[in-house]
Amino acid sequence: MPPSDHRPGTLIEGGAVFPHRHLTGIEGLEPHEITFLLDEAERWVDAAPGGPEKRLAGLTQINAFFENSTRTLLSFEIAGKRLGADVVNMHAAQSSVKKGETLIDTAMTLNAMRADVIVIRHMSSGAVRLIADKVDCPVLNAGDGRHEHPTQALLDALTIRRRLGGVANRRVVICGDLLHSRVARSNILALTALAAEVRVCAPSTLMPPAIERFGVTPFTDFDAAMEGADVVMMLRLQTERMAGGYVPSVREYHLRYGLTLDRLERRAPGALVMHPGPMNRGVEIDSAVADHVERSAITEQVAMGVAVRMACLDVLTRRRRGVEGWA
Amino acid sequence: MSGAILFRDARIVCPAAGERRGDLLVVDGAIAPGETPADAHVIDCRGRILAPAIVDLGVGAIDRAACRAGGIVRVAPLPDQSPPLDEPGAVQRLALIGRPDLWIHPIAAATRGNAGADLAEMAVCLSAGARAVGTGRHWIADSGVMHRVLSYARDLDVVVMSHAEDAGLTGGAVATAGETATRLGLPAAPALAEALAVTRDLMLAEETGARLHLRQVTTAAAFALVRAAKARGVRVTCGITPAHLLLSDIAMSDFRTFAHLSPPLRDEGDRRAALAALADGTIDVLCSGHDPRGPEEKRLPFADSSVGAAGAATLLALGLGLVRDGIVTLERLFALLATAPARLLGLEAGTLAAGMPADLVLVDADAPWRIDADALPGIAGNTPFDGLPVQGRVAGLWKAGRAVG
């Protein structure tokens, strides 16, 4: 079968340190490529607001969001603007943009507008790759279905690295709705690539099949999973899945998987607490933990998000900008 | 003019009579014993395979070009067509439009509108030309309805073709639960959805005495159930397509929608079990499952794309690959492709016995070619085998002694 030309890992364009045209997922990235993106992001973390070089000046960045998003869209918009790009947001509500040929048509339209980089979020797994196939510019995946959300994984890895001095050999527990979570998939791929010890924890109804094949250890008992953890990463449980479909009720879920201060102190007293947001306070995480000044890295994650997205936008457009070594 | 054709020097493969090298005489569209008339038209087969033309059981669409290229002269379309095959007009129209080159033997709907609730007019549809009844691409979830379908079909001595996947487990799923589905983030159902459905349908068939044909069986657990049921004397047969024999769920990697099938591709263990079931005779029918889908249905995110693969034009070549791999003999291959499906449909066809209609395919078994989705004959080229090198081409095709071209 013919190789698909957008497959991560395929040498198409980009520099020798990051030979990828698009960022459609963490899958296919080598550990040193992930580290390279994290290193690049570091430069933007402490950059003075208003002061950074406008590397993307004159370039057009289109944020095409086929699924509702507030924080990720905002984060990409700010990242682009800080780099001087002309940022345009396309909100394609699920009701107005039908599935199907329209998606390809939309991709062709975006392409015809000669965007320099396109950021896409879509509710269907694989949709971003489909669009990436059809356009001439770099494509950044801002979340596709339950498949991947690579910039979230990168910002989480950066947060861990900065707070704990590294990712390798750190014990990270990811707890919550893993079955429907693209954040979990990308994080599992990124953290295992960076040699972290990853534990995943969920009721069996929310555990993806064959997850142990990803080099992680599955748990159904949250207390057992948390033992000795360096990082506890909580995932959002969508309200429509709490009413009996996958778990019996909110209070039952909170009883078994809610991150309370008491549970944290008993099981993982030194652990860093993370959450990709938006949080369901009182469901998967208690306010006392989420707002804990020393333990919670949740607001820091948001800050790292902008830095990571700046780095990705910068790196993916280098060839276009004719940066030396990237042509 | 006697209307006689002599196929000279052929490698004649008949699932009923075995294989022999020699001549085959056709008179007035039927296979004839005896002396060759002096004025017979002679076709020199030069040692190539001459076998019963393929009877393709359970296609999604009527696709003449694909059938012609694939050596198929009879097809049995699934009842979930548009309009559904639940009334005699639709059945009769379909039964007649293919002739003379492609004979269509409709599978009538088992339930009205294929809705899985009320019994459809089976006897009326049979009198209009249907040769079987079926549930189409979907399982009848209500066991009471399926019980009545099988009981009623038993009275008519007509075979019931069932799609066996437990809908409660497969609801919303587009893949088999496993590493690939998890990696791609696709909604998935455990493989045992098939065995659960097969169990129920087998028990109901045993209880009612009906003839049951499981259109596609694809998992080790379900093969074991069918094998045991056959040993008990249950009147059950089952089929498969080349996709489930030759591909596992890894073929869905990179969101290849041409590998979006129903039932979904299984893991490697189940694939091997399917090969074993083909070799030991548990599987009765090899069919194309031909379901051509254009780019508007396939160039979509995986879960939003339509299920189905084009298969008619590649069925024979992939089947010959199974012979080369030593999974089945040549005779058994044509039993799977022609004899068994013809018998299920109650057709006088599918072998080369004297008196049978001369539905013949001449095969150049060694001719190499590469399956190319963009160049596949037929309505659409959505094949999961795109790029695969294969051997075996149709060198000639005859329906009742008449060359199909």
TrEMBL record, chain A:
Similarity section: Belongs to the aspartate/ornithine carbamoyltransferase superfamily. ATCase family.
Pfam family, one: OTCace
NCBIfam families, per the entry: asp_carb_tr (TIGR00670), PRK00856.1 (NF002032)
Source superkingdom: Bacteria
Keywords, ordered alphabetically: Pyrimidine biosynthesis, Transferase
Gene name for this UniProt entry: pyrB
Source species of the chain: Sphingomonas corticis
PANTHER family: ASPARTATE CARBAMOYLTRANSFERASE (PTHR45753:SF6), ORNITHINE CARBAMOYLTRANSFERASE, MITOCHONDRIAL (PTHR45753)
Binding site for L-aspartate: 99, 182, 236
Bilayer-spanning residue ranges: none
Stretches assigned to the Aspartate/ornithine carbamoyltransferase Asp/Orn-binding domain: 170-315
Protein name: Aspartate carbamoyltransferase
Subunit: Heterododecamer (2C3:3R2) of six catalytic PyrB chains organized as two trimers (C3), and six regulatory PyrI chains organized as three dimers (R2).
Pathway connected to this protein: Pyrimidine metabolism; UMP biosynthesis via de novo pathway; (S)-dihydroorotate from bicarbonate: step 2/3
GO molecular function, one term: aspartate carbamoyltransferase activity
Enzyme class: transferase
PROSITE patterns: CARBAMOYLTRANSFERASE
Ligand binding (carbamoyl phosphate): 71-72, 121, 149, 152, 277-278
Task performed by this protein: Reversibly catalyzes the transfer of the carbamoyl group from carbamoyl phosphate (CP) to the N(epsilon) atom of ornithine (ORN) to produce L-citrulline.
UniProtKB/TrEMBL annotation, chain B:
Coiled-coil positions: none
Residues of the Amidohydrolase-related domain: 139-404
A UniProt-annotated Pfam family: Amidohydro_1
Name of this protein: Amidohydrolase family protein
Lineage, broadest ranks: Bacteria, Pseudomonadati, Pseudomonadota, Alphaproteobacteria, Sphingomonadales
